[in-house]
Amino acid sequence: MLLKLILKHSKPYMGWIIAVVILQLATTVATLYLPSLNARIIDVGVVKADIDFIWRTGGLMLVVALIQVATAVAAVYFGAKTSMSVGRDIRQSVFEKVSTFSAQDVNKFGAATLITRGTNDVQQIQMLTLMALNFMITAPIMSIGGVIMAIREDPGLSWLVWVSVPLVLIVVGLLVIKLMPLFRDMQTRIDGINGVLREQITGIRVVRAFVREEHETQRYADANQKLTDLGVKVGNLFVLMFPAITMILHLSTAAVLWFGGHRVDNNQVEVGALTAFLQYLLQILMAVMMGTFMAMMIPRAMVSADRISEVLDSEPSMLDAAERQIALPTPGTVEFKNVSFGYPGAEAPVLNDISFTAKPGQTTAIIGSTGAGKTTLLNLIPRLYDATEGEILIGGVPLAELGRDTISRNISAVPQRPYLFSGTIGSNLRFGAQDATEDDLWEALKVAQADGFVAEREGQLDSKISQGGTNVSGGQRQRLCIARALAAKPSTYLFDDSFSALDVNTDARLRAALAEPTKDAAVIIVAQRVSTITGADQILVLDHGEIVARGTHEQLLETSETYQEIVASQLSVEEVA
Fold it and tell me: Does 503 lie in the same domain as 439?
């Protein structure tokens, strides 16, 4: 899976990869050639006191060394460029895949793990790609070439190569086997700590309101300690590995000097050849150590690749229809036909046999007790979820046959929890209407009763908005979200309890101002306050996922006991009359 993921995303950069391979080959050949030249200087130039030979060979060594440096620098440059590009493309692929997920798919993975997989996991693949491009050619050729060159210099000491190299490989292999499960746990614990941190940042107001700072601090400390303990275990294995490899390196050097010294005394080998053999042995072991660095990263990268591939190979639970030009027979009409919906794993459906029609120029209100399924019903219209049973038609066309662009052009929703993106007020208002003029934006703000406070802010439409809109009040954030929906000028407006953060006077003014821009559109409102929906053309009373009554305010006051109870709990006798 790791190799498949890297190869798939590195295809556009094959030219750079080929350049890296050629440069690494040149570097490796130059590195292998240098000890041999050094041996010739010692055995020929120094022994025979041939100064000219020393200068010629030394000059050649200098040229080879300069070539080695130049090719090594160029190889690292192209390797880094390729690995960073591969990492960028994998991140882009993960983001594009996640953007196709429905709310149900996101909940299946969890927001925290999706963030980790798109950042930390991709970074592991990126770093392994960088190491592989730097060492995948050098390490094996250096090892094989070093063995050949060492045996060529002194076959009698070749047994030292066959002893030291397998020892290093055995040590590395055992440690990699130990590291694999630890790295898998480490990525899971990074998910955990991200999840805790995300919850605490998002719910900081709740934490402070209930004075739970100490509890949340301890919860984060526990998650952090678990990750730390696992990191220490991994570190302990690394602590064992490097001294073990270093010991093998030094013992090999001592063995070459000991046995090689006797061979020099016996005139079985020249001093220069022995020196070259030692350098080749060190090069071999250094190449193995380079491979070790890669080996350290491979287990974690394999785990990360599996986690990334799990996201990339995941098929969205809701498949988008192919985007094409579809003429809606009845724009603005929303029709539910015997729609039922249940969340995955739930014991019972949230909605049962829902049927109604919302028409252009009319306001349809949905009211009911908490947990009745009002928000879920509204979320089915822009296709955040797919109905379990039944059919939803937008403009006379089944929802499943419409592409995302068509849905977004015809439907604007103001969610129950208003959310603004980092940027400016203008960029947020243009979120659903990229070509909206400033006059269009000010008109939308005026209807949403937000033009006053926007005009007072420094920069006005260019005023900065922080992530989530945390630098404006709840009521201001609510009104900006309403203005954003109005700026898109759709044929259907969805308001999910969107007036709850407004005071009664602002609520009344806003609803009065909405009449003109929404006169030709269908308006569907989920409301908690009865006063918000008394003028609706039809009111649907939802109870336990079923429509138990429908009609106007006056009709329901006469016919629906459930509606009467809701009204009685909110309005005085005079207000009801």
Answer: yes
